[in-house]
Design brief:
The structure holds two protein chains of two kinds. By secondary structure, chain A is mostly helical. Chain A is 74% helix and 0% strand. Chain A binds chain B through residues 1, 3, 5, 7-8, 63-67, 69-70, 72-76, 79-83, 86, 141-145, 292, 294-295, 297, 299-301, and chain B through 45, 47-49, 58, 60, 71, 74-80, 95-101, 103-107, 109, 113, 117-120, 171-172, 174-175, 186-187.
Chain lengths: 301, 187
């Protein structure tokens, strides 16, 4: 008998996805800040991080059965990954909100370049990466659901987080008129992001393939989860949402930009890449949650 | 201090579901006709094994296993689920935030989400009744006398004796959860 978990559905999928996007946008901002070439991308990254993260925390909070008791979630970071996550998300949010406000009230100035700002960025990068990894470990430590109980999940979610973050920055950068003009005047960093994302998408395809190939041979429950994704009720969401929209279309479009003339910017193509990356990231979180099948064995088979 | 455990003899179980119903009534678990959710602190598992003409259908009441190494206790962010000294995995309804992580973490699916209280409820071996010298509702009402609760640390207790003589086994011992509910005649 197959028992699929139904406790964590769309709100948690959105939560994992948005937390990942905020990590990606933050890392993009941090890189562009470090490379000192793309101030407008730093701004977009910073402006996106805190709202995405805030929304993700809000969705997590909405999913609680007793919302007003949320402070209790911080009580056991020594053992519970929900507690560890509560701390990480809170600290990362405080830092991201601080940088958002700083950006907002200092519009004309360069984003901080002094030593203190460097430390803030450094701390932010650490918190961001830990947040993305945490979203994978949260599911990874659930021994009762063998499909999640694997070390590749944190890696897959981290890669997907960076990729969806790049997608969000690319999308917003070409949608806003002012930033589109800034991008068109200097497309170098922009094309660099597209190239990095092309590599990330390749890594994600590899991780996802290893994940499914090995899970298909990892006992009754995990192989049932894999079949649910590749040929069962989640097949459409997986092949169309994750593989075609989330991975193949962005990769093909980005591969073009490897060859494209660096001086040119194709607005539609970039926007489509961004939207596809985001949809794919959300679909990935959802299918992994929805394919959570409980441990099966004698006499539960 | 007693270390409570349970043993269920499946040969004595007549599949009447009285344990499920009494548990549901006395613990005020939402009525499935009104709430639309069917759950109790006892989960009745009815797996079919084999193919026609050699098919067998099991019937297994699954209580909380009160694991010594409980995954639900480990993942709980608030400490609402905890292992008490008497071996019972207790649930503190004042502390649960309703994150549902324990429900995912329990390999026995012994916990359920109560949509009325917004919390992840579970079996507590009717601890109040044990303290008062009474048997848990499921034990009290079992018509086949299939369920026994008692002290696992005492080798002369009824529960220890049944486990020893009948060769009772826990479910999923390979997970390392050290469950304290045992089953006789499971095959």
């Amino acid at each position: 008998m197959i028992h699929v978990q139904t406790m964590w559905g769309w709100p948690i999928a959105w939560y994992l996805f948005l937390a990942g996007v905020s990590v990606g946008t933050y890392i993009v901002a941090a890189y562009c800040q470090y490379s000192k070439r793309q101030d407008h991308l730093v701004k977009i990254g910073i402006y996106l991080t805190a709202p995405c993260l805030g929304l993700s925390i809000f969705l997590l909070w909405l999913d609680l059965g007793h919302r007003m008791r949320f402070p209790y979630a911080f009580l056991r970071p020594q053992e519970s990954w929900i507690s560890i996550g509560a701390w990480l998300l809170t600290l990362f949010f405080i830092l991201a909100a601080f940088q958002w406000l700083k950006q907002f009230f200092n519009r004309d100035n360069q984003p901080g370049t002094d030593k203190a700002a460097g430390w803030v960025w450094g701390l932010g990068i650490i918190l961001a990466l830990l947040t993305a990894i945490y979203t994978g470990i949260l599911l990874g430590v659930v021994q009762a659901i063998p499909f999640w109980n694997t070390a590749i999940l944190p890696m897959l979610f981290l890669i997907s987080a960076l990729s969806t973050g790049i997608g969000a920055v690319l999308l917003v950068a070409v949608i806003l008129k002012k930033s589109r003009e800034a991008v068109q005047s200097n497309t170098e960093g922009f094309h660099f992001l597209a190239k990095v994302d092309g590599i990330l998408v390749l890594l994600e395809i590899a991780c996802l393939a290893f994940y499914l190939i090995i899970m298909a041979k990892s006992g009754v429950a995990a192989s049932a989860s894999t079949h649910m994704i590749t040929s069962g009720s989640l097949a459409a969401a997986f092949w169309l949402g994750v593989v075609v929209i989330g991975l193949l279309i962005p990769f093909i479009l980005e591969f073009k930009s490897f060859k494209a003339n660096a001086a040119k910017l194709n607005v539609t193509q970039t926007a489509v890449t961004g939207i596809c990356l985001l949809l794919g990231g959300l679909a990935l979180r959802y299918i992994i949650l929805a394919a959570g099948i409980y441990e099966a064995g004698s006499p539960f088979i | 201090m007693a270390r409570y455990g349970m043993v269920i003899d499946l040969k004595k179980c007549v599949r009447c579901r009285t344990c499920y119903v009494t548990c549901k009534i006395f613990h005020n678990i939402p009525n499935e006709f009104e709430s639309g959710h069917s759950y109790s602190r006892i989960r009745l598992v009815e797996p079919e094994v084999g193919q026609y003409p050699s098919v067998r259908r099991f019937f297994i009441p699954v209580h909380c296993m009160h694991c010594d190494n409980a995954p639900c206790v480990e993942v709980c962010p608030t400490g609402a689920s905890y292992l008490a000294e008497n071996g019972i995995v207790r649930f503190d309804p004042e502390k649960c935030i309703g994150c549902k992580y324990c429900i995912l973490a329990c390999p026995y699916q012994a916990r359920y989400y109560n949509h009325e209280t917004g919390m992840a409820d579970k079996c507590d071996f009717c601890e109040d009744r044990l303290k008062a010298g009474l048997k848990p509702y499921c034990v009290q009402t079992c018509i086949g006398n299939a369920i026994t609760v008692g002290d696992l640390d005492d080798p002369n207790s009824e529960v220890s004796q049944i486990i020893k003589t009948e060769g009772a086994v826990p479910l999923y011992p390979h997970l390392g959860t050290k469950p304290k509910v045992y089953y006789c005649n499971i095959k």
